[in-house]
Structure formats: C-alpha cells, structure tokens
C-alpha cells in the first residue's frame, strides 16, 4: 500500500528519517529545517532548525547516535544533537570551503561524515575530542567540478562521489586515529586517505552527463550511479572490469538506491520511481507507481461523427493548454502519477539494506510518498533467476 503525505506547496529539496521512522527532517528549499513527528497517522511539526543563512542542500540523520547533520549554500555544515531539555543544539563544522556545500552523508559507523561542495573537493569530517569540535580533511585531486552526490561503502572507509565533470569516483577516507585497518575489497587493497580507487568517465565509457546519484550495494561489491543523459550504470569490479550501462528512454534520474544485492530503484524527472535488476546486465522491471492512465483527446481530420474527430476550436484550445499548463487535456491538469513534479530524493524507509521493504520519495510538489515493495518481491525474484 502506498502512503502519500503532503507538506504544502513548497518543494522538498531534502529529507532524512530518524531510526524508528517516527520523525522526519525536511527542508523546503529554504534556510530552515523542519522536524515533523508522526502522530495519529499525520505529520505534525515539532521543531525548527534555524542556524543556516542560505538554502539547505542536504540532510542526514544518524540512526544510532541520533545526530542530524545539515549543509547549505552558505558553505557551512552543522551537527545537531538533542540536549537534556529536548532542544536541538548545533555545532559548527570546520569545512574550509569557499563554495556552497551540496551534499552530506554519515558514514555507516557514524564516527565521521562527508560533505561534497562546489569547491571541487570533499570534506571528510570527524570529531576532535581534544578541541571539542568537528574538523575536516580534504579530498581534492582529481575532482574538477562540483561534487553532486555521495555514498558510503559498508566498510566505513570507501566513499563514492559523483560530480558534474561527468565522472564517478571511489576514494579512500581512511583516518588512522578513527578507522580500523580495512580489509581488501574488489575496489583495491591499499587505502591511504584520499587514494583514488576507481574513476569512471561517463562521457566516454558509460554514456554522458553529470552524475546525479550513487549507491553501493549491501555487500559493497557493486556501485550504481545515474547520470543526466538518462543512463543507469553499475560497476562490479569483482566480476567485470568494465561497467555495464543502460541508456533508457525515460527522463533523467536524480537518485538511485539498491533495494537488495541485485535490484536498484531510481527516480527523477519522470515523477515515478522505477525498479531495475542488475544481476546479469541492467533490465527494467517495472514502475512503482501503478496509477491508472487517463486517455487524452485525439486529434484527427476524420469523420466529425467518429471517436477521433476534434473541432478546430477544440484543437486550438488543446494546444493552448499544452503551451500554458503542460497538460494535454484542457479540463484536467492533474497528472497520472502520485507525484506531480520531479522527485528530488529517494531513501530507504523500512527493511534492511540487503532487503528493503519500503522506500520513501520526496518531490518538488511538496509530497512525501512511501512505497511498499512487498508486492514486487515475486517480480524481483523472477529477474534474479
């Protein structure tokens, strides 16, 4: 069953849930972050985070430590923690960047987080107990443009980053005083800090377009990313040194998420999340939104008494509607999907990383939608065979 919740008409640029999914932090394209609590089946605003001076670009909520990290176009990041009175108190993070922060993500162990930015670098942040503040180390080379998305490997050391220079990269974020020495992975064995483990040029190897979203599989052996040319790519270095790419006929995807080791969900400008299998190649499975499609009027020069006839006045009105409202039917401006605009973020709602049972999407239409994947298990199992 699909659940739909509206948070007004303002676009939702980013969101993050707490551990038990009873609270959600949302930013509606402003410098504020609103925290809502689920009460009686409805979301009620319970707190407001107001420290940023410019638009908040990304939020992540640590499940175990219950800390929220936010970053914004004001070039700052804050770690928010609740005090004994129940208030959220911010701690400034020393990012040392001169451009907007674009994305943020906690590591699996929640002892550090990464911030991407328009400064063509990644800030890997950790808490320095001696000075009681959050400091950062930079990953710069060979990034040549804005970092648009981040994803952590399960080993807490490797970090995937997509950027607008058409490349997807995997870096090591190993910090001696924080991390245990990592074991060898298909991505490499030696992992000093800022080591480039993999670089893929999407304009030559795997299509073309800046990278919108990246995601590691539950085992960490696969990496999926989506680009602005409507392509989906999956790298599996343990089995194939060359990434597999599917160039789709859909509008570009903005986000990607593994739902199990061999299936990924994507969403973006088509207003509808979709499911793909990635076991042997990449194959389309189905759209998650199964809303009934409404028939639009047809234009023809046929018999006026026929079903496909449309008068000149009606045809003129139809094209005016298309031009003004991007709608085919002048009497209907509601689209045939639950989301009425582009989906901005896709996240795990329920289940484990190796078997997601529910997904959550938020969009430019101000909607938060929870999608139940249980009814799709049979379809996914058939694609994995």
Indicate the low-confidence ranges by residue numbers. 294-310
**Category from helices, strands and their pairing:** mainly beta
What's the count of strands?
28
Alpha-carbon distance between the termini?
26 Å
Order of helices and strands: EEEEEEEEEEEEEEEEEEEEEEEEEHEEEH
Shape: globular
Major sheet description: 4 strands, antiparallel
Helix percentage range: under 10%
Q: Tell me, rounded to a whole number, the average pLDDT.
A: 89
Beta-strand residue percentage: over 45%
Write a structural description.
The protein has 385 residues and is mainly beta. It contains two helices and 28 strands. A four-stranded antiparallel β-sheet has the order 1-28-27-26, with no helix packed on it. Strands 2-3-4-5 form a four-stranded antiparallel β-sheet, with no helix packed on it. The chain has a four-stranded antiparallel β-sheet with strand order 6-7-8-9, with no helix packed on it. The model is unreliable at 294-310 (pLDDT under 50).
């Amino acid at each position: 069953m699909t659940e739909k919740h509206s948070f007004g008409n303002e676009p939702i640029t980013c969101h993050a849930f707490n551990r038990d999914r009873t609270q959600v932090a949302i930013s509606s394209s402003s410098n504020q972050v609103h925290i809502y609590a689920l009460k009686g089946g409805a979301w009620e605003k319970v707190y407001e985070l107001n420290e940023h001076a410019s638009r908040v670009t990304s939020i992540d909520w640590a499940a175990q430590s219950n800390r929220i990290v936010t970053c914004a176009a004001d070039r700052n990041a804050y770690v928010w923690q609740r005090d004994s009175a129940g208030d959220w108190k911010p701690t400034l993070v020393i990012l040392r960047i001169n451009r907007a922060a674009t994305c943020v993500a906690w590591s699996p162990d929640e002892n550090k987080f990464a911030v991407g930015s328009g400064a063509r670098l990644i800030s890997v942040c950790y808490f320095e107990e001696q000075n009681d503040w959050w400091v950062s180390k930079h990953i710069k080379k060979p990034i040549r443009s804005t970092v648009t998305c981040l994803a952590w490997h399960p080993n807490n050391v490797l970090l995937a980053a997509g950027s607008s220079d058409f490349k997807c990269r995997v870096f090591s974020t190993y910090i001696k005083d924080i991390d245990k020495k990592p074991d060898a992975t298909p991505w490499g064995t030696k992992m000093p800090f800022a080591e480039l483990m993999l670089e893929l040029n999407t304009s030559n190897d795997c299509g073309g377009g800046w990278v919108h979203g990246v995601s590691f599989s539950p085992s960490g052996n696969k990496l999926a990313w989506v680009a602005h040319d409507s392509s989906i790519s999956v790298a599996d270095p343990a089995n194939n040194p060359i990434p597999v790419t599917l160039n789709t006929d859909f509008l570009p995807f903005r986000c990607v998420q593994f739902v199990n080791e061999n299936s990924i969900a994507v969403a973006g400008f088509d207003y509808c999340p979709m499911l793909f299998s990635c076991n042997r190649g990449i194959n389309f499975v189905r759209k998650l939104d199964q809303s009934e499609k409404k028939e639009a009027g047809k234009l023809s020069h046929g018999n006026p008494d026929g079903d496909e006839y449309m008068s000149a006045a009606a045809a003129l009105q139809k094209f005016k509607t298309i031009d003004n409202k991007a709608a085919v039917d002048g009497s209907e401006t509601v689209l045939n999907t639950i989301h009425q605009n582009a989906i901005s973020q896709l996240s795990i709602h329920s289940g484990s990383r190796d078997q997601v049972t529910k997904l959550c999407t938020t969009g430019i239409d101000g909607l938060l939608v929870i999608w139940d994947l249980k009814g799709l298990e049979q379809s996914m199992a058939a694609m994995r065979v």
